Amino acid sequence: MKEMNRKIEGLTDSVIRRMTRISMECGAINLSQGFPDFDPPEFIMKRLAEVATAGPHQYSPTWGAYNYRAAVAKKVGMFMGMELDPDKNVIGTIGSTEAMMATLMAISNPGDKCVIFSPYFENYAAQSLFNSIEPIFIPLVPPKFTFDADLLEEAFKDPKTKCMILCNPSNPSGRVFTKDELQVIADLAIKYDVIIITDEVYEHIVFEPHKHCYIASLPGMWERTICCSSLSKTYSITGWRLGYIVANETLMDQCKKIHDFLTVCAPSPLQEAVIPGLEAPMSYYKELQAHYQHMHDIFTQGLDRIGFNYSDPEGSYFIMVDISDFSHGMNDVEFCEKMAREIGVAAVPGSSFFKEDVNHLARFHFAKKDETLYEALNRMEKIRTL
Ligand SMILES: Cc1ncc(COP(=O)(O)O)c(C=O)c1O
User: Fold this and answer.
1) Which of 18, 86, 198, 306 has the fewest CB atoms nearer than 10 Å to its CB?
2) Which of 278, 293, 308 is the last residue of a domain?
3) Is 229 in the pocket of ligand 1 (CB under 6 A)?
4) What pTM does this model have?
5) Which of 247, 278, 309 is the last residue of a domain?
């Protein structure tokens, strides 16, 4: 057989999805891969049932059904404080995952560099690799996960730096970057002519008093930001695989060339069924936020009771927990495997998110029913016996 793709030789499977497999093998409560165990909103499920008989069941236009794009334009425009044109500024994608891949393919040439904060969501390194882009990792330093603006400037200064991937609110750190921090990034992007690719899938999961700010809405940034986001988390439909790219017409035309041939279109019945979600009133987002605050509080109070130290997340549904006091010399990978098999709770070893040598953390997610969280915490009480 002739040589396969050399670029992916060293690529291992996703640690997050591996932990899910281990969790299923040993019947653990899966707090590793982030998805809810509760239902999507009733009004979306009702519409899904109607669409099953009424359709559509065939391909939508490649950029997304017009009503899907119109609903995204209206909803995103309202939150970003901008007027968006469904034809010029929106593409419907297969989740944020496709949105980001299509974006990277659309803007990069082999040898380009991309700035990524570390710890990072593992897709970013893989998708950079697929596109022969070299990541420049800039540390977000635990426990506060702040960055050094001078280090960031060094990375932007590199003439090969084409873009920065900005995950905000951030998985796994839970950071919600302040407007001042975003302004630092925006100033550098303008100064060094760098494109910002946002991944804002947790835009509606932010804990008081923190506020999500869209970097695209800062002065001079609409010209150089490609916003990628998803309906997976906002409407608790990670399996529907719906997302979008929002950008100015020039950047969008470039992304359209890739999306057209990459996927044809996102699932058309699901684009139709999610429209009541996209049209939901502001109270929906307030309730979502309150629900996540509630799950956050159950989980952090449980961690306090057991005696864990952790970085309290400002947003997202992840929490980075310090395992040093409980690991008895095990590294984070050994600890997480043992915890899944012997305690019955699965988390992700923190080292899988860091470029730096950090192996005293584990990432848990708390997008779960109350009873699931209480049961997980009950099991975790036995952690000292590991
Ligand atoms: C930061 C981040 N981006 C993207 C995704 C994937 O989003 P989607 O389901 O829209 O592909 C996830 C899923 O966990 C995520 O945490």
Assistant:
1) 306
2) 278
3) no
4) 0.96
5) 278
